[in-house]
Amino acid sequence: MHGVVRLRVGQKYRRGLPWQQTFEFLFVTLDNVEIPKLLLKPRLFRRVETRKYNTDKPPQLKQVSPPNDMTTTTPHEYQEFVPLTNITTTKPHQLKHTKPLNSSTNSPPQLKQVSQSNNTKPCELKHVTCPPKTKTVVLNGDRLYHKGDDLTVRVVARDEGGRPKTYGGDFFRARLVSTDRLPLASSAGHVTDHSNGTYTMQFPLYWTGNISIKIQLVHPSEAVAVLQRVRETPNKRVFNCSFVDLTTNATQTRQCYSSIDASMTPRQLCDLSKRDVNVTWICEKPDKLPCSTISMCHYASTTSRVKTLGLLSQRELFQEPYIEEELKVETKEPIRVLETELAIPQHLPACTWDKSAAQGYWSGKVWQSSVCDVRVFSKNDIRQCLANKTVYMYGDSTIRQWYLRLKKVLPLFNDNRTMDSTVLLGGDNSQWNISVRYRFHHFPIQTRGWVDFRQLRYIADELDAIHGGPNTVIFLGLWAHFTADPLEMIQSRLYAIRGAVHRLKQRSPGTRVFVRTGTTREHSGVRLEYYLLGSDCLAYQITEVIREMFRADPDVVVLDTWDMSVCQPGKDSVHPDQTMVDNQLNILFSHICPNKTAS
């Protein structure tokens, strides 16, 4: 290692945050770049009360008042809204609580400085994480790496003046990709936010050959704070619903919301909420028609766009160079992974409820789990696996993708077209005695097309109506239409669904239930409100809610698809390509039929 290294010990004390922290640091100066390394875990003195979700008691749906000031123009305001620790927003990967690397005053780790690209647009906002100024170092980059090792990268966030930031909250996306092998390989990195402006990214090394490190700053912490405040503002999204008198055909259209409107009296509202499934649905009351005449609803995109953008005062946080900016890590020498010197088990255990296939890597167009045996299922394998079974699929259009794929693969006939295909689909294969039914979840549904409100059902109610049994398989997936709403909405709905699953398992113990997480989605070139309402940061928060809700629940298998989407070979999309869908289904079928001979 070249350059001059200087050490000093000091303390930093910060005010103006939701907590006060005193840190003791070892300051390592390398080539005139001072890098603070945390020596002692900070003591946290809470000054505000935080809400932590209790899975033993359903969260209460409360009216949340919009913030009085959406301006984020000073360093103090940025710091004031650093996300609280009970809502993790900084790890675009699987949930992994990793302790910070230990620092030593006697033998500081060898740091390999990584050069930065100079092609990025200059930063102009003060005190905001600046990608060109942010420093990225590979810890022990000169060592020999073998398959099975971990590669560790440290990121030190800096602002436009090159000053190290003293708080965390940046949202990164970290990947490894192969550069000299076919088929191409890629994997996701595990990001640890040390809450002091530094981040550790660990990359398991799954394959041999030369590798390239890809780190993207999706949002700086200041933008994450804005996203969080916008999310917690209720009723940004507006839905238009028609009320129809079937006798006279009299029709009136009114605005509806997913939270209570405190500005209106109960006499002015139609309360169509369903308390036993933790759902709120409020509409403006028609002049002459009863609330029971509600008919069709759709998402009022223009009205919602105006309301959402009205909550934002500093759009520069969602423009270049502060959004989805690649750090473009460059090492002085290519990092090459050698074959391991230790014996590696040739066979992985079967995929069970407590063995998630989330960890792994892409080898070409096949997801290779590092935890359990994920097989590649042929069409005939799928038919054997699902033979004599009834499959229920509930959720959004990402689950509908699974139904449409199965319809083609099995194939399914007698496709149910008697109802709105947005709401309900179904088909059968008499040769293999397979029945598959798909139903969209209830509102909020963010689609411009009109949806028959009367045909929708709540998932918890549907689960209570299923008899179940060993030949019944249930897939649940709802996340994409909830990224714009306060987290307590999806938490409450999932809590009701979990209760219905437990009741189902009690009366039919052999029923198998799976719930999947979210994925990354497309944003490039889209309008600003799509970030505010559907950023990957918001989707990842829901992924963590799903993990936390069902992590230790033996009645449910969590199909965690986040990591595989972070490093997928195809383009990011809320509706991913067939490669992604097929590999998601491979994970599912490996849990249903773990043996080579499908049951």
Automatic annotation (TrEMBL):
Superkingdom of source: Eukaryota
Name this polypeptide is given: NXPE family member 3-like isoform X2
Region of interest called Disordered, as start-end residue ranges on this chain: 54-74, 92-127
Regions of compositional bias (Polar residues) in chain numbering: 62-74, 100-121
UniProt xrefs under Pfam families: Neurexophilin, NXPE4_C
Gene: LOC118418896
Entry-linked InterPro entries: Ig-like_fold, Ig_E-set, NXPE4_C, NXPH/NXPE
Domain NXPE C-terminal intervals: 367-593
Organism: Branchiostoma floridae (Florida lancelet)
Family: Belongs to the NXPE family.
SUPFAM superfamilies on file: E set domains, SGNH hydrolase
